[in-house]
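Standup notes, structure subgroup. Blocker cleared on the pyridoxal-5'-phosphate input:
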Amino acid sequence: MDAPTMKACSIPSFKATELVIKRSTAPVNRHDTCAFGTVFTNHMLTIKWDACEGWLSPLIQPFHNLPLHPACSSLHYGVQLFEGLKAYRGADNRLRLFRPMLNMERMLVSARRACLPIFEASELLECIRKLVEVDQDCVPCSDTASLYIRPTLISTEPSLAVQKPGRALLFVIMSLVSSYFNAATKDISLWADPKYTRAWEGGTGDCKMGGNYGSTLCAQYEAAENGCQQVLWLYGEDHQITEVGTMNIFVHWINEDGEEELATPPLNGIILPGVTRRSILELTRQWGEFKVTERSLNMAQLQGALKQGRVKQLFGSGTACMICPVAEIFYLGEHLRIPRQEKSSQLSARIFKQLTDIQYGRTPSDWTFLV
Ligand SMILES: *Cc1c(COP(=O)(O)O)cnc(C)c1O
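Run returned:
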């Protein structure tokens, strides 16, 4: 490819200073209870890109349906990706995002993997900050409610050829998360069937691309038919423990060497690098109270530890529920019960408190980003 011409006709990033805002005249959308991801705020952000002109000016406008060419390759070949982060309203009535630059950077990793255009992470963050500001009245004043922000990047290439897109659309929509959903922290049961694989080495399991999720519905449905809430994703002949549903997984136990340890699988390409995962690792390493390890874990090791009474807790982590303790696992006809500890000695409860204290601004932290 001819580098100088490429340079002449491509713009590296959109600029938040060029943002245009068209305000909605609809009444502010506020709901106290609603199912996750079903009620949206009044505005959305859209930014168009094409290979020749590069990024156009960002636009905040009333929430609307997208006009899409029916051949566009996001619909046919899954050339798309997304992100997920939240805004929280603190007791001081200010809205905060939690480590949003990590989401922006992860979005760029996914964009490169999907052959979609990249941009300046800080420019998108500033556009999102503006969007949250425009719709801030949609977020109730509650220490359990939050706003779920969904940045999305899709190919709008109107062609059935399997090729690198020449047109794309970045958009951001925001959904109200009721306090009910946030407060629901009931321990979950897991369905572990090695016939299903969520991600594999050399694949895209470490990127937030839609295809990774649509293809798990079948397993999720089977888990539900067997009375379980989530799938425990196993990998390889030794049934390595990788993730739970759309969450990272942590084991708090006394390890094979008799040491207290908090362990989670390493980022080896099949694990989604969660912001919550990273925050839990950083937080517990700061405590310095026990070993915190990124290591592979398999079902035989977990079964052995359960038999010997070495398992303290097992939990999933992610932006949606923050921390989700596991009560039991159904695996190859076996019913593995995870011991339930007193609430006061649960590691998950302690981490949940420290993280939510930061998110809701009760503990000052450079992990929060004021809107
Ligand atoms: C999004 C996601 C997570 C959690 O990531 P967070 O940044 O903590 O929300 C974990 N696993 C999968 C498969 C995910 O898609």
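Discussed briefly. Residues 84, 208, 243, 246-248, 272, 274-277, 317-319 surround pyridoxal-5'-phosphate (CB under 6 Å).
Next: hand off to the docking folks.
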